[in-house]
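chain below, 292 aa
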Amino acid sequence: MTHDTPPRIRCRPIGDADIAGLIELLTKGFPKRTRAYWARAMQQLARRETPAPYPRFGYMLEVNGTPVGVILLIFSTLYANGEAHVRCNGSSWYVDPNYRGYAPLLLAATVRYKDVTYTNLNPSPHTVPIIEAQGFRRYSFGQIIACPALNPRVANTCVRPFDTRDDYGPSLRKEERDILVAHADYGCLAYVVTEKGEANPFVFLPRRFLRGMVPAVQLVYCRDVRDFVRFAGPIGRALTRQGILFVCLDATGPLPGLIGKYFFDRGPKYFKGREPPRIGDLAFSEMVLFGP
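prediction:
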């Protein structure tokens, strides 16, 4: 009588030597994305600073040394009220159908750090029951497509593209300046809106609507989404000069004073942790690093 040897299944952090195999696995799992897309994603993770002791790339599931599952993780140190905290954006979760029963191992490894706020910003519909069972809760229920140039002017206001050579004064905190620098390097549009000498940072990610025919941007960062509503007119006219009429932003409902339309259940976002992420803060997220 012969006995089959049970497979050796292991969940572990991704290392540099695993990248080539995981690019192939991700291309298989997400056929709408190209191999070049995943190669760029891995390059972005490899070159950015990751706070210790968290993994640089994420976790993988392997069977007898062959990768069969992956989840990419983006750990970042962010600041709220002057205090540092760590946020982790989980992205691109895929497990080979033959080994789907082991998928919870990846999620369990992902959420092992108790002092981290976890986000899932683009969950596939079939994964929502799984992440909800892991304790994830929805914090953004839809999105607004706004046409901010239709909003009124704001007196004593100036909108300028962020320039590393400029001194914006103490109202632009160092951590905000670092966000502007990093996201401009990622290809985002970084602006500083000054009002009576006070600097207000904004970051937008270029994207396109209607099958790529209509240029638009996604609001990636601001101090408070109410700041975007307040400065919508000047910002919208600055974007119009770049040929951009529409801004997409996360929301829990319509925003009074902002000209646009709210779409419930469009782009819902989830979190796990003590405090939900702030609406209007997608800094260092997958859509920025990997592309929309």
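The chain has a mean pLDDT of 92. The two ends are 55 Å apart (CA to CA).
thats it, cya
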